[in-house]
Amino acid sequence: MLDVSAARSSGLGARPVLPAMFGFFLAVTTEDLTETLSFTWGRTLNVGIDVRWHGLPVTEEDQVAGRAMVVDAWERAGSRGGHRQFLRLRAGFARGDTPVCDWEVLFTESRDEPTMEPVDDHDPRDDQGVTALDPDGAGRELPQVVSPVVDRMMLARLSVALDNPDPLHLDDEVARKAGFDSVIGQGSAVVGMLHEPWRQANGLDVPFTLRSQQLRPYGLGDRLVAAGSVADDGSATVEVCDQEGNVIGRGSLQEGLR
Known about the structure:
Layout: H1 4-9, H2 30-36, E1 45-53, E2 65-77, E3 83-95, E4 98-111, E5 140-141, E6 145-146, H3 152-162, H4 172-177, H5 187-202, E7 208-214, E8 225-230, E9 236-241, E10 247-255
Antiparallel strand pairs: 1-4, 1-7, 2-3, 3-4, 5-8, 6-8, 7-10, 8-9, 9-10
């Protein structure tokens, strides 16, 4: 993944780009995020990312175009007062006329006042949540993956690579105003860790669908650990935990596009 000569020996012209790197920030301008979609940096957070990978490996030298659209928006009364807004944003990426990767992201933000009258409480997707990893270890195990310790340089590099303008990952003051002790990590890294055990077992040329939920943030000093298993029907469940065993995110993966 990092060595050019190794990539070329695998038949690629340059280093491959992973599905987790096709973040929605590459398909939406900063102006549209803040002015059209009313993002508030530090307060608008993603709570789930779904990925459809078409099985076409692309490299850092390929030209890929992205387009984004709003799938739906709704809100509900908050459990602690106020209101919580939800937004589903879909971004599709293609190399020429060939689809490469599709992202669908669920964002949420808490506000004092509703934006709709009456409050429109619905979720257009039938979502029963992502199944937790079986603690008894049933099924075929996927390779375990461990990340380096998260530091500021890692978060800065990810923000640059993803074209992510959110200062929540770089500025402690913004993070503290949002209720965190310090900067927190990007959701794309959680998606990447959820996918990595599957990638090591199946490669990049197999189409797959990933549905994920992020349950809590991670931050400086954390080390992410991804582990998963494959059921008899071929579907996989993966969890990403920190070094203390707290579940950061869960994902379900299936071969093919769904």
